[in-house]
Design a protein that fits this description.
The chain is elongated, with a radius of gyration of 24 Å. It folds into two domains: 206 residues, P-loop containing nucleotide triphosphate hydrolases (Rossmann fold); 102 residues. By secondary structure, it is α/β, with parallel strands linked by helices. The strands form three sheets. It has a six-stranded mixed sheet with strand order 5-6-7-3-8-9, with helices on both faces. 32% of the residues lie in helices and 26% in strands. The structure holds adenosine-5'-diphosphate. Adenosine-5'-diphosphate binds next to strand 2 and helix 1.
Length: 329
């Protein structure tokens, strides 16, 4: 497989601050690489390094050349903060950015791609935050890049617009475009990325496909029981052989597969323990993030989660029905 991006021992300091500390990274042609990490971990600095907009130590090759020497027509970049002139319309802005390249895509096609055909004649400043961000994404697509860097592309975009941008990025990737993205949304990273790299304190501490990262660092599937009597519940479950830990108003039972839920519920019923909710979750990238950084990934969704409450009529297993009965106060 062709390697589009190769970084070796990349380092960057700002005074005493170490922004990048020995980063090794390769991104293959057609791959979507998601970069995650806490604020200040070095994500933006790494994107700047890979696009040749900040000098670094170490070695970086993009399409076999130094980043700054790569033909601009081949790279698209959407920075995290990007404020185009406010008194130009969406169409004028796409046209303007298209004019910066020797060959550019048709403006109407780019507007359609980012879902702005109908609002193309609105000034940038009158568009909603999400529409503005879509214009910005459009400016990164005008040159039909082979390699696309997107620093938080969907910030401020509503869920429907976000999903249509995901589909657009998926179709670009399917067509061979290589994408490096950062995101504030773990659901976005998990859905789009072929591989994910976790940056922490300037170091790439874990790299892999979402499923390998989850298998290596995500822990097991678990049942979370919302209950006022957490310690009694944990004791009853522990006696029955479950690995249960009580915290404030809940009990977390690790290593519970769906077929074990009924047994856990029976244990609670037999012990006369009432509860407010049962939530079964599969490990996700969110758990990987929590495990490796010690922080939760703010605003992230947990795609594997399903919630069953007493009011719920959609019980995933018959045994959860009996949970509802057993859980009544
Ligand atoms: P992230 O994008 O993961 O939030 P950044 O790459 O923006 O992280 O920042 C990494 C570290 O480098 C942080 O400690 C940040 O304060 C510092 N940093 C980034 N840019 C500059 C700069 N221009 N001047 C000084 N320090 C900077």
């Amino acid at each position: 497989m062709n390697e589009v991006v190769v970084a070796e021992s990349v380092g960057k300091t700002y005074g005493d601050t170490v922004a990048l500390d020995g980063v090794d990274l390769t991104v293959a042609e057609g791959e979507v690489f998601g970069l995650i990490g806490p604020n200040g971990a070095g994500k933006t600095t790494l994107i700047r390094a890979l696009t040749g907009t900040t000098p670094v130590t170490g070695e970086i090759r993009v399409f076999g050349s130094e980043p700054a020497a790569v033909d601009a027509d081949r790279i698209g970049l959407l920075p995290q903060s990007f404020s185009p002139p406010a008194r130009l319309t969406a169409r004028e802005l796409i046209d303007y950015y298209a004019g910066l390249y020797e060959t550019a895509r048709d403006t109407e096609a780019v507007l359609a791609d980012v879902g702005l055909s109908e609002d193309a004649d609105s000034w940038y400043e009158t568009l909603s935050g999400g529409q503005q961000r879509r214009v910005c994404v459009g400016t990164a697509l005008v040159n039909d890049p082979d390699l696309l860097f997107l620093d938080e592309p969907t910030t401020g975009i509503d869920p429907a617009g976000r999903r249509s941008l995901w589909e657009l990025l998926e179709s670009l990737a399917a067509g061979g475009t290589t994408v490096v993205l950062t995101s504030h949304s773990m659901a976005e990273v998990q859905r789009l990325s072929d591989r994910v790299g976790l940056l922490q304190d300037g170091q790439l501490v874990a790299v892999g496909t979402p499923s390998t990262l989850i298998a290596d660092h995500g822990g097991t599937s678990r049942l979370v029981i919302g209950t006022e009597t957490g310690h009694a519940a944990a004791e009853a479950l522990g006696t029955a052989g479950f690995s249960a830990t009580a915290s404030q108003a809940e009990v977390v039972v690790d290593g519970v597969s769906p077929v074990d839920i009924g047994e856990a519920v029976d244990v609670l019923s037999a012990a006369g323990i009432s509860y407010d909710s049962l939530t079964w979750t599969e490990p996700s990238l969110e758990d990987v993030y929590l495990q490796l950084t010690g922080e939760s990934f703010e605003g992230a969704a947990t795609p594997g989660a399903s919630v069953v409450s007493e009011e719920s009529t959609e019980s995933p297993t018959p045994s959860v029905d009996s949970a509802a009965t057993g859980g009544e106060k």
